[in-house]
Amino acid sequence: MSYELIEVAYEEQFATIILNNPKRRNALSLKCMQELTTALREVGESPARGVILAANGPAFSAGHDFADMADGDLEFMRKLLRTCTTMMNTLQEIPQPVLARVHAIATAAGCQLVASCDLAVASTEAAFATPGGRGGWFCTTPMVALSRNVGRKRALEMLLTGDPIDAQTAADWGLVNRVVLPEQLEEESLRLLSAATRGSFFSKALGKQAFYAQMEMPQPLAYSYAMEVMAAASQIPDAQEGMRAFLEKRKPQFDERS
């Protein structure tokens, strides 16, 4: 498909989705979110083993586009936020690991976008904020993803103050995995995603799905659910091949996704 506000490229085993509206600081307009959801679903059905989410321009994403929203009535705002929620959930529903490659500031729903990805690598020039705490519209939906990445007190500090945190603080707090110099950002993103996608694609897809499913369960229920998933997954061909290869002291030959 062709897109107006994003770009999608495939190279070797990975797909890269690039937010490409730098004049609007990659704001998440209704159209942008619809395009991004469609692109994620397209990539989810593709042979790609992993996904990089990146951006062009001076910002990774400035969050929702107020030009879309300033005169929106209640029903429009519900539609917009449902579209945003669907997009965020799609990041976690597709089978591939999704890595955010964050080169610059990510604010509000842009910060939510990073928090919703499975992995994130940030440049030392990146920063993160939920600025609703300084204005008249609290970052309530970004709060959901943010609070599932960082601890309660740190999430509330970001949400209530609206102050940005730098990339190293984001790493220390658990919002991103790595912080590197700008010139190392692409290389480190590829290195981490390569490590996260080695082995069995099918096993990892089941594992990603199970991770998000069990996150909010009470521990006894989470163990019960995880036990059943792991037992069922032991019967897939890749699991059997992995066990045989270990016993036979050879490299496993997993099924390729096609």
Describe the model.
Helix 9 runs antiparallel to helix 10. The chain has 11 helices and 10 strands. Strand 2, helix 1 (30-44) and strand 3 form a beta-alpha-beta unit. The chain is globular, with a radius of gyration of 19 Å. The protein starts with 5 loop residues before the first strand and ends in an 11-residue tail after the last helix. It has 258 residues and is α/β, with parallel strands linked by helices. It has a 6-stranded mixed sheet, sandwiched between helices. Strands 4-6-8-9 form a 4-stranded mixed sheet.
Number of strands: 10
Strand order of the largest sheet: 1-2-3-5-7-10
Q: Profile the largest sheet.
A: 6 strands, mixed
Our estimate of the beta-strand percent is 15-25%
